[in-house]
Amino acid sequence: MDLRQRVMAALDEGESSLEVAARFGVHDSWVRKMKRRRDRTGSIAPSPHGGRRDRRLDATAEERIRTVIESRNDSTLQELRESLASLGIRVSLTSVWRAVARLGRQARADTARAREQCDPDSRVGGAVAANASAEVREKGFDRAPKKRSVSRAILRNLGDLSDPA
Q1: Taking the alpha carbons of 145, 147, 152, 154 in that order, is the dihedral positive or negative?
Q2: Which residue has the higher pLDDT, 124 or 2?
């Protein structure tokens, strides 16, 4: 006999939900929920598990993504999404990202923060440029390597650190 049936039989014999829970080694709230389910639906069968939803992007949409990426390799997810919208397919950026991943491709990341950091006239980009060390700018580095590398390079160029080579 199934545990659910034995629990219900014990409740029907007059035991309390706490006694039944202790007897069968289950939580009393589960016993009460089973009783409530039987009272409401007449069944003690478990509810079905949730399943995956069907994909919003079919083979036609994925082919469109593939052709856009092949024609313009630097397409962003937003641009791919707009391309699909022109076909009447409205999906989230996450759906586009998953489709691109299924195709084994990669779309270009396009974040506002990344664009600002590349723009020296923006508040964020200007702050990044202003915080660069004067020594790095003086020595003519195009961009600063990792912090540890910058420190060693600066000290080596200033003569305070001998070259380990």
Answers
A1: positive
A2: 2
- Determine the Cα–Cα distance for residues 74 and 67; give it in Å rounded to an integer: 12
Domain-wise residue ranges, the chain: 3-41, 59-102, 112-158
Nearest Cα neighbor of 8 from 41, 40, 49, 21 is 21
For 14, 22, 44, 47, 49, the CA distances from 17, given in Å and listed in that order, are 9, 9, 15, 21, 26
Closest CA to 79 of 123, 110, 119: 110
Q: Please give the residue that has the higher pLDDT: either 149 or 105.
A: 105
Backbone region of residue 14 per phi and psi (left: phi > 0; alpha: psi in -120 to 50; beta: other values) = left
